[in-house]
Amino acid sequence: MSEATRTLPVSDTGGAAGSSASSIWQAIKNGFPYFLGFFSLFFIWHVVAVYVVASVLFPPPYAVLLRAIELLQDGVLVENVGASLQRIIIGFIAGSLIGIPIGLIIGSFPLARKILEPWTESLRFIPSVAMITIAVIWFGIGEPSKIFLIIYTTVFIVILNTAAGVGAISANKIRAAQALGANSRQIFFLVALPATVPYILTGMRIAMANSFTTIVAAELVAANAGLGVMLWQGRMYMQIGDIFVALVSLCILGFTADRLFRFGVARFAGRYDVTP
Amino acid sequence: MALISLADVGKSFRSREGRSWSAVADFNLTLEDGEFYCLLGPSGCGKSTILSLLAGFTLPSAGRLELSGKPIKGASRDRGVVFQGDDSLYPWLTAVENVEFGLRLRGVDRRERRDRAMQYLELVGLRGQEGKHPSELSGGMKQRVQIARALANEPRILLMDEPFGALDAQTRGAMQVELRRIWERMKVTVVFITHDIDEAIVLGTRVGVMTAGPGGTLKKNLPIDIPGERTRGDPRYIALYEEIHALVREEVLRANARRAA
Ligand SMILES: Nc1ncnc2c1ncn2[C@@H]1O[C@H](COP(=O)(O)OP(=O)(O)OP(=O)(O)O)[C@@H](O)[C@H]1O
Ligand SMILES: [Mg+2]
Description:
The structure holds two protein chains of two kinds. Chain A has helices at 2-17, 20-53, 61-73, 76-108, 110-123, 132-139, 143-167, 171-179, 184-221, 227-236, 240-269. Chain A is mostly helical. The two termini of chain A are 38 Å apart. In chain B, a hairpin with a 2-residue loop joins strand 4 and strand 5 (70-71). Chain B starts with a strand and ends with a helix. The site of adenosine-5'-triphosphate has 13 residues of chain B, from strand 2 and helix 1. Chain B: InterPro entries: AAA+_ATPase (IPR003593), ABC_transporter-like_ATP-bd (IPR003439), ABC_transporter-like_CS (IPR017871), ABC_transporter_ATP-bind (IPR050166), P-loop_NTPase (IPR027417). Chain B: Belongs to the ABC transporter superfamily. Chain B: This is ABC transporter ATP-binding protein. Chain B: GO terms for molecular function: ATP binding; ATP hydrolysis activity.
């Protein structure tokens, strides 16, 4: 008993100090529940598809995998995933680049807040999906309308979170800098901005997730390529397999993007206390 | 001329309902260069408010605050501040980066500011902890990082709000000795808020006791002229302790009575 409780913290520090065998073991121990979770997902899918539903309308995982390999080989999957991903990345980056400075301004200057809040507080309630028709009318069915929609999705969430982050900076952080001799430019770049980084990243992460919703919806309505197009054509030609490949691709893309983001946050901003 | 003077200083805050609340009122005090002034008083009497006025973070609602004869209009590098609580540290910087922050603002080059920051970290007993972020430090360690940060900037006046509140008795004792030594060596003027009467007597050249709020004001100033080592065995120490204790006790009782009413 006492042995066990004592070895726990010891193995903790020992692992960090880095005997590589034990850290691999640690990684396996930490990763196993995740593996189990994913495995059960596919397993239950398989059971339900094969034994419960038993219909061509609900293919089991291996059938979807086979179809995915086919689509990969003829390049269709890569083309569609690439199209969707490219739109998301461009729109997301542009939206963040627009949203961060606006959020910083709203958070820093009460006057700017009063002037800009009517914009953000009314426009953000129009779901980007509702903007699809007007985006297509304005920008056509090509890339610009999709990118516009992703920017629309991203910008308000980033603005809101950034402004909230600026508002949450404790007065003493600013005061400490003033008493150390900081001018307002230094306070902005060396205190306010870094203090807001965790909030900005949180906003971007939510925006990224929402971008997937928007892009699929937009592509369903009007596009030449993309996962939404794949889903639509799957319905038109009753290609159930294609629909499932698109759905699974969305799972994988969303999961990967979110993980990458979290990893980035931990890597670059882990030192920024995320609970301020 | 006095280094700092407060004449009939008052500060009121407006509550959310719009009522005005007087935190301090009719506060009069002059501080000479080189003093070590300790401010005592019941919780909520307005000690931090006074410190924040001295720092220049807030402006008085009434009266005049002057530094070397000039009104205090804002914060400045000549007045270093150690805050009550630890939310003034920068969580994205390491301990040593926090300490050298003031030097960095001034453009002191990297090597030199690192050296100086390390000296002050050593002084507060945090050698070996320089690479840690505030979230990895204990409450008392964070407090010491704050002290090192203020000292590294070498201010003329040091404003400290219960800086040793979070420390254990041993560390507190060591820090008191260190602070006293720094005060002697660097010829700084210190305004030091504390709840600990012993601490005030050991450190100060003068102790001020405030009345309970609202409208806290200075009740009495007592000079501490006990030369040499100040120990609890000394009869002058005991007499002073008794006097301050009685003054503070009276105000704490008054504050409690007011709260009960
Ligand atoms: N920003 C503020 N807004 C409104 N009221 C305030 C503000 N700051 C302080 N007060 C009020 O002023 C009074 C004095 O507060 P202050 O922080 O100066 O007390 P203190 O003597 O430092 O207490 P403690 O020993 O507990 O730190 C309190 O009643 C407090 O509620
Ligand atoms: Mg206080």
